[in-house]
Amino acid sequence: MTVTAGQDSLDTRRTLKAAGKSYDYYSLEAFADSGYPEIRKLPYSLKVLLENLLRYEDGRTVTVDDVKALAQWVKDKKSSREIAYRPARVLMQDFTGVPAVVDLAAMRDAMTQLGGDPEKINPLSPVDLVIDHSVMVDAFGGPDSFRKNVELEFERNGERYEFLRWGSKAFRNFRVVPPGTGICHQVNLEHLAQTVWTKEEDGKTIAYPDTLVGTDSHTTMVNGMAVLGWGVGGIEAEAAMLGQPVSMLIPEVVGFKLTGKMPEGATATDLVLTVVQMLRKKGVVGKFVEFFGPGLNELPLADRATIANMAPEYGATCGFFPVDQECLNYLKLTGRDDDRIALVEEYAKAQGMWRDDAQELVFTDTLELDLGTVVPSLAGPKRPQDRVLLTEAAPEFAKAFKDLAGGVAPREVEVEGEDWKLSDGDVVIAAITSCTNTSNPYVLIAAGLVARNAAARGLTRKPWVKTSLAPGSQVVTDYLEKAGLQDDLDRLGFNLVGYGCTTCIGNSGPLDPHIAEAVEKGDLVVTSVLSGNRNFEGRVNPHVKANYLASPPLVVAYAIAGNLNVDLYKDPLGEDTDGNPVYLKDIWPTNHEIHEVVQASVSREMFQERYANVFEGPKEWQAVQTGGGLTYDWNDGSTYVQNPPYFQGMAMEPGELADITGARELAVLGDSITTDHISPAGSIKSDSPAGDYLRERQVRPVDFNAYGARRGNHEIMMRGTFANIRLKNEMVEGVTGGYTVHYPSGEQMPIYDAAMRYQAEGVPLVVIGGKEYGTGSSRDWAAKGTRLLGVGAVIVESFERIHRSNLVGMGVLPLQFTGSDNRESLGLKGTEMFDITGIADGITPRMDVPCRITYADGSVKEITLLCRIDTADEVDYYRHGGILQYVLRNIAKAA
C-alpha cells in the first residue's frame, strides 16, 4: 500500500525549474485561473492545505467539492467542511515515540494473529524519532555534569534504547536521531525540515510544501520557517504513519499583524509571552494563527520560531509565518543544500506562497501588536498565559504567595550543614532549558553576556539555586564557545548538563537533599525560573510550587538574585568586589552588542559539521546491542517495554456499539485540567501505585526514573494516570493527589486501585471535568491510561483539541455539557450514577446524547450531552474500539 498523488481531475499539475532542475507540482495559480481567482486571497497557511487537497484529490478521500470548499472559505472566512489532510512526514520524540513504536510492534504481533503478514506494518510516511526527553539533570554546576548525566541516561534507559535500535532496523521509512544530539524541535528546525519537500514518483520529482504532524505539541515551532505542522497524539501520529489521513475541519485563521520594532532590552521571550497573553484573551483554540505585517521585517527567523513554538500555550493549532527572504537566509545559515534553497524560492513564488505585504489576504479575524510596546516579562506561577511584567514581578509574587501558602506569613528554615537559611520565594531552580529559546542565538548570547558582565563584577548565583544549561542542539555549544561565553556561564553554574528536554518536561532532577528537607519541613513556597514553555503545577519539580517562564538572560539574573521577592528594577542583585551595589541594568547588554556577537559567532559551517553524521550518535549509542527480526521479542521482566493489551482477542470485524449504563464517577475535576494532571511525566513517587509496582519488581527508588521514560510499559502508565500530586479531585475534600472514593463502599483510595476494583465489579466509569479539559502536551497516555482504567466517557464543559481527538482514538467517548449544565449546576459530588444512551443505535458526528443522572438520594435528572466525535472518520475509529484497531483491520483486509 503506497500513498500516491491523486487523479488531478482539476488539471493543475505543472512543471517548474529551479537551479537547472525540473519539478512537477500542483499549481494553485492554475486552479485560480480555472475560475477560482478568490483563492489568491487565502491566508498562506490555507494555501498549503489547498495544495494538499489538489495533490491528493481522488474522488474518494478527497473530492473536488473539498477543494472548492477552500475556495469558498474566502467568502465565509470559516467552513464546516471536513477534509482529509495528508502531511508529508511525522516527527516524534522518545517520550511519545517509544509507546508509538511499542504499538507498531504490537500491531505486527496482532497482524500475525489475524493471519496476515507482519511486514505490512510499516510507516508509509517518513518518520524521524529524536531521542531528546530522557536526559535528567542529576549533576549540575560542574565541568563533568554533562558526562555524568549521559552515563546515567544510558544506564537508566538501556532497555528503551535497545528497543528503539530494534525499531530503527525493523521498520522501513523510520529513522532515529540518537540521544545527545538535541531536542526534536530544534533538530527539525535546523536540519530535518526543508520548507519544500520532494519525492520521486513515476520517474518524476514532485515538489510540495513541507508539512508534518508530531507527537509533541511544540511541533508547531517549525511553522516559523513556513512548515505547516502541529502536535497530535501518538495515536493519530501512528495512523498518519500508516497512511491514514488526518481528518480535520477547515480551520478559521486569525491574522496577527505585527508592526514596529523591538525596543532596547526586550527579548523574543518577552514578545512571545505578550503574544500568548493576547491570543489567549482573543480565544484561538482550534484555529490557525498567521502572522503578517511590516513587523516581520524586524524579526529574525529564530524569533519567529520562538513565537511559533508556543502555539499550544496560546491555544492555536499553529502559528504560521510565510516564506520570505528571511526564511531563505535561515535555510542558508543552517546548511541546507543550495538547490533546495533555490527550489523553495521558485516554488513559493510560483504558488503565491511568497510573503507579499501588498497582497490583500482574508482572515477570519485579526489583531495587532506594535513590537515597540513589548517589555520584559515573566509568566507564572502556574500557567504560561499568565504574563507578569518584570516591573511588577515582586509584588505579583507576593500576591500569589498568599494563595500558594494558604495565607500564612513568609517563613525561613535552616538548611542542614549550611550557614544560610531557605526562605519562601527562593529560586531553587534556574534553568536555561531547550525547546522555546535555545534555538534562538540572540537570547542565548544575551544570557552569556549577562553572565560575563555579572562575573566581571564579582557576582555569582546564590548557593541554593540549582542551575542548568540544556541546549536544543550541539550548535549552541559551538557558538557559545566561539564567543567565549560558555566559560562565563560556567562561572555562574550554568554548565552544560545535556542536549534535550529537561526542566520543562519534569526532568529537572532532584534538589539537594538538605534543601528538599528544608522545603518539606517549612512547607515553603520555593520557586523555579526557566526559559521553557511549560510551568503547570507539579511539572517542574514536586518540591516547587511556583514556576515562572522567563528569557535566558532573566534566568541568569534570577539565579544571582535568588528570590522572586527581589525587584530586579529597583533592588541590587548583589555587590561588586568593592562593596558597591550592582543592578540588573549594570550587566544587561545592548541589542547592538548582542547582534554583533551573534553575527561573529554563528556560522553555516557549524550546522554543516554538526549535522553531517546526525544519525550516528555518541559511542554509548553505537554500543547498544539489539536483536533483529520482524517482530519484537518481548521481555516479560522488562519494566520499560511491555506488549500492550489493545489487540487482545481482536477479531477481524468490530463488535456492536453499546450504551454506558450504571456508570460511576472515577473523578470530578475542575477547570484547566492538563495532560500533566491526567498523565504525569515527572518523577515516580515511592508510595504511589507505580512505585509499588516497581518495588515489587526489585527496582530501587533511585532507579525509578520518570513516568515519561517508562511510557513503553502500560502497567506503570495506568498506575500513573490521574496520579499527579497537584490533582484536585472534588470527590475527596481537603486532599490533593491521585485519590478518589469508591462507591458504594465509601472507601478512600488511590484512583488506580478504585478503577481496578470497579473493573472487577463490572462497573463502567466516567470522568467529569470543567473547561479546557486536556490542555498541555499531546500526551497519548492521557487517553490510553484513561481507557485502560475502564473509563468509557469523559464529560466536560470544553476539550483541548488534541486530547479530545486522542480520547476518540482510544475508544473513549468525549461528551460535552450543553446549555447551562456543568458539574456545579448539576451538583455532582461523585456519589451519582450515569446512564448514557443512544450510542447502541449508532453514532453520528456531534449528535445529542441523552444522559440520566441518578443521585444518591434516588432522585433523577435527565440532561442532553453533545457528542464530541466530530467527524465521520472519528465515528469509524470509535466503532472499531480505537484508531489503531481500525487501521490494523483495514491493512489486514487489504493484504
TrEMBL record:
Keywords tagged on the record: 4Fe-4S, Iron, Iron-sulfur, Lyase, Metal-binding, RNA-binding, Tricarboxylic acid cycle
EC number: 4.2.1.3
Superkingdom to which the source organism belongs: Bacteria
Catalytic activity: (2S,3R)-3-hydroxybutane-1,2,3-tricarboxylate = 2-methyl-cis-aconitate + H2O; citrate = D-threo-isocitrate
Stretches assigned to the Aconitase/3-isopropylmalate dehydratase large subunit alpha/beta/alpha domain: 76-562
DNA damage in keyword set: no
PROSITE patterns linked to this entry: ACONITASE_1, ACONITASE_2
Xref: InterPro entries: AcnA_IRP_Swivel (IPR044137), Acnase/IPM_dHydase_lsu_aba_1/3 (IPR015931), Acoase/IPM_deHydtase_lsu_aba (IPR001030), Aconitase/3IPM_dehydase_swvl (IPR015928), Aconitase/IRP2 (IPR006249), Aconitase_4Fe-4S_BS (IPR018136), Aconitase_4Fe-4S_dom (IPR036008), AconitaseA/IPMdHydase_ssu_swvl (IPR000573)
GO molecular function ontology, one term from the record: 4 iron, 4 sulfur cluster binding
Biological process according to GO: tricarboxylic acid cycle
Subunit structure: Monomer.
Family from the record: Belongs to the aconitase/IPM isomerase family.
NCBIfam families to which the protein is assigned, alphabetical: aconitase_1, PRK09277.1, PRK12881.1
Annotated PANTHER family: ACONITASE/IRON-RESPONSIVE ELEMENT FAMILY MEMBER (PTHR11670)
Protein's job: Catalyzes the isomerization of citrate to isocitrate via cis-aconitate. Involved in the catabolism of short chain fatty acids (SCFA) via the tricarboxylic acid (TCA)(acetyl degradation route) and probably the 2-methylcitrate cycle I (propionate degradation route). Catalyzes the reversible isomerization of citrate to isocitrate via cis-aconitate. Could catalyze the hydration of 2-methyl-cis-aconitate to yield (2R,3S)-2-methylisocitrate. The apo form of AcnA functions as a RNA-binding regulatory protein.
Protein name: Aconitate hydratase
Name of the gene this protein is made from: acnA
